[in-house]
Every structure is written in structure tokens, then in C-alpha cells.
Design goal:
Helix content is about 35%, strand content about 20%. The chain is built from three helices and four strands, in the order αβββαβα. The chain is globular. Its EC number is 3.1.26.5.
Length: about 120
């Protein structure tokens, strides 16, 4: 398993993000919520992370949380590898408390497992 998180796996295109939020499914597990869209053909999983400025005014805090979410995804993306499917997904941090990496990782793993059911 490759534990890298290259640019080709990041959700960046505006049309992909718009389609995801328009027709994607949502699952929540505090402190994270996951918006995802499943495709039945093989391809690359695309992932994005978001922390609202409304809840964390300082960019330092937002960047730290985004770094934690990206790292947890990078280490556990093997949970969603399937042969004939791929996902576009966006993790959104939905609480106003700063949590430890372990808490963020635990929530992210739970969301990934729920998504692949």
C-alpha cells in the first residue's frame, strides 16, 4: 500500500466539488462530517478537507486541524480501496473545539468504514 497523498488524489476542481455538494451523501461522526460521492467505475479516490473560518478565526488553528485530517486520511485510505469503485469525498470539521490527533483519527476511521458499507 502506498501511503503518499499526491496532488492527483486531492479534490481540487471546482466542478468536482460542486457535484459532490449537489448530489453527494453525508455521514456524520462528531467532530467530523463526510460528504461523499460513489462512482461505479475504477478510478482514483479524491479527497478534500475543510475547516470553517467561522469556528476557527486563526489560520494557524485551521491549518493544524487540516494537517491532522490529511494525515489521518493518508494513513487509513487503504480502508476504502475497492476494485471497481472510487469515491470523491470531503471531510468537514464541525465542532469549535480543538481536538487531539487521536480523536480526529478515530472519527475519520469510523466515517471511512461507514462510507464503504
Amino acid at each position: 500500500m502506498n501511503y503518499k497523498f499526491p496532488k492527483s488524489e486531492k479534490l481540487r476542481l471546482k466542478r468536482h466539488i460542486e457535484r459532490l455538494f449537489k448530489s453527494g451523501k453525508t455521514t456524520k461522526n462528531s467532530p467530523l462530517s463526510l460528504k461523499y460521492l460513489k462512482f461505479e467505475e475504477s478510478g482514483t479516490n479524491l479527497c478534500g478537507v475543510s475547516v470553517p473560518k467561522r469556528k476557527f478565526k486563526k489560520a494557524v488553528d485551521r491549518n493544524r486541524i487540516k494537517r491532522q485530517m490529511r494525515e489521518a486520511y493518508r494513513l487509513h485510505k487503504h480502508l476504502i480501496v475497492k476494485d471497481k469503485t472510487h469515491f470523491h469525498m470531503m471531510f468537514v470539521y464541525s465542532t469549535s473545539e480543538k481536538l487531539t490527533y487521536q480523536e480526529v483519527e478515530k472519527a475519520l476511521i469510523t466515517l471511512l468504514k461507514e462510507m464503504t458499507r
